[in-house]
Amino acid sequence: MVAEKIDGKEVALKVRTRIHEEVKKFQAVHKNFNPYLTIIQVGDRQDSSTYVRMKLKAAQEAGIECKIIKLPEEITEFELLTQIRHLNEDVNVDGILVQLPLPEHINEGKITSEVDANKDVDGLGPANVGELYKKGGNARFLPCTPKGVMTLLSEYNVQVSGSNAVVLGRSDIVGKPMSQLLNQANATVTSLHSRSSPEQLQFYLSKADIVVSAIGKSEFIKGDWIKEGAVVIDVGTNFISDSSRASGSRLVGDCDFKSVSEKASLLTPVPGGVGPMTVASLLDNVIIAAKANFETNFQTPKFTNP
Amino acid sequence: MVAEKIDGKEVALKVRTRIHEEVKKFQAVHKNFNPYLTIIQVGDRQDSSTYVRMKLKAAQEAGIECKIIKLPEEITEFELLTQIRHLNEDVNVDGILVQLPLPEHINEGKITSEVDANKDVDGLGPANVGELYKKGGNARFLPCTPKGVMTLLSEYNVQVSGSNAVVLGRSDIVGKPMSQLLNQANATVTSLHSRSSPEQLQFYLSKADIVVSAIGKSEFIKGDWIKEGAVVIDVGTNFISDSSRASGSRLVGDCDFKSVSEKASLLTPVPGGVGPMTVASLLDNVIIAAKANFETNFQTPKFTNP
Ligand SMILES: NC(=O)C1=CN([C@@H]2O[C@H](COP(=O)(O)OP(=O)(O)OC[C@H]3O[C@@H](n4cnc5c(N)ncnc54)[C@H](OP(=O)(O)O)[C@@H]3O)[C@@H](O)[C@H]2O)C=CC1
Ligand SMILES: NC(=O)C1=CN([C@@H]2O[C@H](COP(=O)(O)OP(=O)(O)OC[C@H]3O[C@@H](n4cnc5c(N)ncnc54)[C@H](OP(=O)(O)O)[C@@H]3O)[C@@H](O)[C@H]2O)C=CC1
Q: Helix or strand or coil: residue A36?
């Protein structure tokens, strides 16, 4: 079997076009509807700068105003918290995203918990997390990457209910919410992590109809671990050195693309698979936030006293 | 192999004795420390009445004051919410437990979400749930049954890290937090539910070193599905008719006890396994709540202005 490539760029474009249409339609009726996202970047990690730039560009293309606040690496936790509180109080700000990872001296959990639940477009604060894991819960913002993966599976008509699914990785951003969303969609999910043995890895992978890998290990998963016909979603984005490239490096996923594509039925490439979907899901979350904020704070009341 | 019975009563007694000692020690220093639990029971389901009575008795034995508020089946959601708000505001109330299940016309999620996060001794509100699922999260109150199961595993020196674990059921009270606690303890966990097929059930069970069943299906799991030497924790409490009993019924677990005990190395009986641990964990949560409440609201400030 040779896997069909899942075209994340194409699906993401579809989502972003839909969002742009939505914004225009809403603005036609409500002239003062201006979705507005603020991204906070602490320090200047090169990868973070790349991601932030991609988000900015995509937001602008979709008709979303986007401001980037760059803060120095040395900023204290307290100063960063204060900054977030200001944004929480600014009624014009619809969504707040703190680009991760943060410098070591800052407690990430504390920071992501500070973002107002109504502006938490990354879905990482306790209110959103709590709702995500509660049965019949009503999380307003799903974490962007898992949300994007679910959209890909649905766009490619992958049967999730009843499947055996394996998620590699259990981070708050990707692995854990991914397992939860697949479980909610009635897959039987096994969660693998760094303390799972190679034997466990291969046992569960050999049975998996759907594999989502988010571990950040270059070309780690081999084709012969995978079940014939499996759907493989590769979230990993890893740079490896490649002297044939001008930059001296090349982006690869967690999967050994060549051997895995010989066994899988569907496979996301890296780049061009999950990455664009993460950005598209973020924009979707910003629109959800902006509409709710508009209704609460900007809408002309329907009934006014004369 | 014939399984050793896990003696939940004995371990629970140990926990409760520890709690009683703690309360006495703390009271020796702080005379006005009076841990106080309020249980709300809506309607008069027989099983709920039994559980509530057990909790009351255990609390009193451990030196915890316990009040039961019985509300009529027909109470409205609004009235119940109001009741909870009163208890939230009553500084003397350390812990609030709403006995589940609630009548159909009341939204359980809404009710459990209303309990003040600092009094949420069942651990079912969004703040506690959010913390439970966040990496490095700091849930003050773990849901009682899964917390009790972890205590049992630890008391019987079961090696959780590195194991294959299977959890049957994914409810907010038992299955889902159970999977999360086992995952945190570095087991590789598969979550099974009603949409898992019999073939999936048997595949994962045949590999599982640790099985926790919380599905509420009488004697459902058979010995030949289980791996030789597995540790089996049976949370299920199901009544089946038994004409040889005066009551006409008998309590059984989710496991076919006889056949499973021939394959497992350790097995919890029903009754006398998980049930007593649920109660012990509740008392433990009440003490955590009471100490925190005492420090916040009752402790004489260390430095006072003369
Ligand atoms: N394409 C996109 O849009 C995005 C891509 N990413 C990429 O996804 C990857 C994961 O990101 P993130 O979740 O933030 O990473 P983290 O480093 O937070 O988490 C990595 C997870 O992988 C687990 N792990 C590590 N090694 C193994 C192994 N050999 N087998 C199984 N599990 C293992 C770890 O286990 P343990 O918990 O035991 O430590 C951990 O849970 C990275 O490459 C990142 O760049 C991330 C976000 C968005
Ligand atoms: N000993 C104790 O202290 C306690 C005991 N219990 C007992 O534990 C049991 C479960 O309680 P609770 O979690 O509240 O129950 P729920 O009814 O809320 O949940 C039952 C779960 O079991 C799943 N399930 C049902 N049938 C099957 C099946 N054939 N195979 C796999 N999974 C299945 C359901 O799946 P789906 O999600 O798809 O519907 C659901 O997730 C009950 O017997 C209850 O009395 C509960 C609490 C405390």
A: strand
* A206 touching chain B per CB within 8 A: no
DSSP string, A218-272: TT-B-GGGSPTT-EEEE---EEEE-TTSTTSEEEE-SB-HHHHHTT-SEE--SSS
| 3 state SS of B91 | coil
Q: Return the ligand number nearest the Cα of A51.
A: 1
Closest CA to A91 of A293, A299, A295: A293
How crowded is residue B300: how many other Cβ atoms within 10 Å of its Cβ?
Answer: 7
Dist. CA A12–CA A57, nearest whole Å = 14
- What whole-number distance in Å separates Cα of residue A264 and Cα of residue A225? 11
Which superfamily is assigned to B144-275 in CATH?
NAD(P)-binding Rossmann-like Domain (3.40.50.720)
Point out the residues of B that are catalytic.
55, 99, 122
Report residue B118 as tokens: 């600092």
A288 sits in which H/E element:
helix A274-293
Tell me, what's the ipTM? 0.96
From the CB of A119, is ligand 1 less than 6 Å away? no
- Establish, for the pair of chains A and B, how many residue pairs have beta carbons separated by less than 8 Å: 99
Report how far ligand 1's centroid is from the alpha carbon of A161 (Å). Answer: 25
Rg of chain B taking only CA atoms, in angstroms: 20
Please tell me if residue A164 touches chain B, with a CB cutoff of 8 Å.
yes
Start-to-end C-alpha separation, chain A = 71
B274-293 vs B8-29: helix crossing angle, rounded to 10:
20
In contact, A215 and A253? CB cutoff 8 Å: no
- CATH placement of domain B31-121: 3.40.50.10860
Cα A167 from Cα A185, distance rounded (Å)? 14
Give the integer Cα–Cα distance in Å for B189 and B32: 45
- Would the pLDDT of A288 be above 70? yes
Residue A102 CA neighbour count, 13 Å, CB half: 18
Asked if B11 contacts B277 with a C-beta cutoff of 8 angstroms, the reply is: yes
Amino acid at A191: S
Tokens standing for residue A299 = 């809408």
What is the CA A211 to chain-centroid distance, rounded?
A: 17
A267 or A303, greater pLDDT: A267
Residue A304 has pLDDT above 80, yes or no: no
Query: What confidence score (pLDDT) does residue B135 get?
Result: 80
CB atoms within 10 A of CB A278: 24
| Annotated domain spans of chain B | 31-121, 144-275
Neighbours of B241 (CB within 10 A): 9
Say how far apart CA B122 and CA B116 lie, in whole Å.
Answer: 11
For residue A4, is pLDDT > 90? yes
What are the backbone angles phi and psi of residue A63, rounded to the nearest 5°? Answer: 85, 25
- Cα–Cα distances (Å) from B43 to B37, B53, B75, in that order, read 19, 14, 9
Q: CATH topology of B31-121 equal to that of B144-275?
A: yes
Mention every residue, 6+ apart, whose C-beta is less than 8 A from residue A101: A45, A48, A108
CA dist B183 and B191 (Å) reads: 11
Q: Say which CATH class A31-120 falls into.
A: alpha beta
- Secondary element (H or E) of residue B126: helix B126-133
Is the pLDDT assigned to residue A136 strictly greater than 80?
A: no
- Please report residues of A whose CB lies closer than 8 A to that of B196: 188
| B40 three-class SS | strand
DSSP classification of residue A294: I
